[in-house]
Known about the structure:
The chain is of the alpha/beta class. The chain has one domain: P-loop containing nucleotide triphosphate hydrolases (Rossmann fold), CATH 3.40.50. 37% of the residues lie in helices and 26% in strands. It is built from seven helices and nine strands. It has helices spanning 3-23, 40-49, 90-94, 112-116, 118-128, 152-161, 178-199, and strands at residues 25-33, 62-71, 74-83, 102-108, 134-140, 166-169, 206-208, 215-219, 224-228. The strands form two sheets. Strands 2-3-1-4-5-6 form a six-stranded mixed β-sheet, sandwiched between helices. Strands 7-8-9 form a three-stranded antiparallel β-sheet, with no helix packed on it. Strand 5 (134-140), helix 6 and strand 6 (166-169) form a beta-alpha-beta unit. Helix 2 packs across helix 7. The protein is globular, with a radius of gyration of 20 Å. The model is unreliable at 1-21 and 202-230 (pLDDT under 50).
Amino acid sequence: MSNNDIKDDDLQNNEKDDQDTNQNNLNFKIIIIGDSGVGKSCLTIKAIKNLFDDFYSPTIGFEFLTYNTNFENKNVKLQIWDTCGQEAYRSLIKSFYRNSSLAILVYSIEKEDSFKNLDNWMNDIKNESSPDIKIVLIGNKSDLESERKIAKEEGEKFCKDHKLSFFMETSAKTGVNAKKVFEESGRILFEEYKKFKDKNKDASLLSISSNNSGTIERDTENEKRSHCFC
C-alpha cells in the first residue's frame, strides 16, 4: 500500500468521524420575549449559570447564550436569543424571530400588564416567525406569591386557548423550574426533529445546517428546501 493510499484512507476516516460527530449534534434557535422587567434574562442566567442578581440591569437590545443538553445520545444545543422588552427596541427584536424554532413567552405573576400584553407578543410571533414555531408560556417570579396578580389558572387557560406547547411557573430567584424550561423546550424540539427524520428516511438527502439553527436542508434534483424543526 502506498503512502498516498494511507493518506486517502486517513482522510476518509476523518471525514466519517466528522459526519458522525455532526449527526450527534443538533442546534436549535430559541427566542425569549416578553415585557421589560419580567425576569427573562435572570431566568436564563439562573438556568445556565445558577446565578441570580437582584440588581440585574435590563437587557439592551439582546443577549446571546447557549444551553446544552442531551437526548438519546444526541447533543442538543439551544442557541438562546434573550431580547429586551422595551417598546423602543420592538422593531429590532422582530428580526430575531426569523428561523427561530421555539419562542419562550414570559410574563411576571405580579405584573398585570405583562400578562395583558401577551396578546401583543403573540401577534408579533404570528406576523414575524414561521407558522410552525413552537411557543411556551412562562409565568415568572413565582417566589412573589404575596404580590401575585395573575392566578396560575389564568396562565393555564391562556396556554390552552392558544394551543401552546406547555405552561409553567418559574422563579429566577429560587431556581424553581428554571432549568426545566429549557430542558422541556429542548425535548420538544428534539421530538420534532425525530418526526421529521422519520418522514425523510433517506439519510443521503438530509443534512443539519451549521448556520441556520433548527433547520434541516433537503436537496432534490430540482429544488432545495429548508424545513424548520419547530
